Structure formats: structure tokens, C-alpha cells
Amino acid sequence: MQEKNKLGDRGKMQWRSCSTAETEELGRRLGRLLRGGEVIAMFGGLGMGKTAFVRGLARGLQVPEGEVSSPTFALVHSYEGRLTLHHFDMYRVDGWDDLYSTGFFDYLDSNAVLAVEWSENIEAALPENALYLEFARGDSDGERLLTLSGPAQVLADLQARLEK
Length: 164
Ligand SMILES: Nc1ncnc2c1ncn2[C@@H]1O[C@H](COP(=O)(O)OP(=O)(O)OP(=O)(O)O)[C@@H](O)[C@H]1O
Ligand SMILES: [Mg+2]
Known about the structure:
Elements: E1 10-17, H1 20-33, E2 39-43, H2 50-60, E3 76-80, E4 84-89, H3 96-102, H4 104-108, E5 113-117, E6 131-137, E7 144-151, H5 152-162
Parallel strand pairs: 2-5, 2-6, 4-5
Antiparallel strand pairs: 1-7, 3-4, 6-7
The structure holds adenosine-5'-triphosphate (ATP) and magnesium ion.
The site of magnesium ion has 4 residues, from helix 2.
């Protein structure tokens, strides 16, 4: 799959997390603001905290308490909260046929929230309005830098509501 290169006017927000709990809390804060139909495309490699972030997203979407684990084998886990959350792990997804079989495109046309681990593997299939969430390592073992980017308008709206 090819990378998309025309992404238009983009906005960006950055956070530093110093623990798993902080990453979950960032997810929870974003989850509270979602309105449905968002695609959160996560990038960054092994063990960066993507699943931890989704655990927070689920809390923020009022998914009842329970285990949120990586859908490494199932490819997708779905949760019901105030919105439906589909949590994908694209680690093993290779090519369009594989991706079709996950239900990704069906869910895209719904009002659900899609959180996608290993978006590197399906980047060409991401919609234009996808929010990119990139994880990078910080200076110490427990530090992660999270960068959220997406359409400028959407980011500005999220930022304004996050600060309230
Ligand atoms: N600031 C941090 N935020 C999140 N996780 C952290 C942080 N610092 C250390 N960790 C550790 O990194 C690991 C993150 O695990 P997690 O399963 O959330 O990552 P992942 O990106 O989903 O990995 P995978 O690519 O295997 O799906 C955990 O072992 C956690 O303890
Ligand atoms: Mg994971």
C-alpha cells in the first residue's frame, strides 16, 4: 500500500506521558470529547502504549469496566459505551483483502469510533479526516511523546474543548 501524501491543512497537539496511567488518562480525556465517526490512527511501533491509550479511550466513552486488551489475533474488538468503539490491531494485516475481512470499511461508514493500532500497515486506506496519533519514546524508559494531528479545524475544536 502507498502512503498518502496530500493531507491538506493540518493541526497538531503534543503531550508528554511519564507512565502508563498518564497515557490512559490522555486517552480518557480524548474519549470524552468524541462525537462519533472519528478514526484514531495510531503509529509508533511495539510496546509504545497504544493499547494503554485505547483503554483510556474506552473509559472516556463510558464503556463499562472490563478488560481492554490488544486484539492481536481477533484483529478487532468492539465495545459499547455512549458510542461504539471498534479497536483494531493491524499488526498482522497485509494488503487490501486482509483489511476488507476485518470489517474496517463497514465500520468506517457508521457513527462508531475506530481506534487503529499499527496504522502503518493500512495507511493508504485511512480516510482523509483520520486523526493521526504518533507515539515516540522520550528520554527515560517510562516516557512517551504523543502527537495528535489531523484536519486543522478538527484539531482546533478538540483543543478548545480539552482546555475547558
Ligand atoms: N508512558 C507510558 N505510557 C504507556 N505505556 C508505557 C509508558 N511507559 C512505559 N510503558 C510500558 O509500555 C508498554 C505499553 O504497552 P501497550 O500494550 O499499551 O503498547 P502497544 O503500543 O499497544 O504495543 P503493541 O505494539 O505490542 O500492541 C507497557 O509495558 C507499559 O508498562
Ligand atoms: Mg497493542
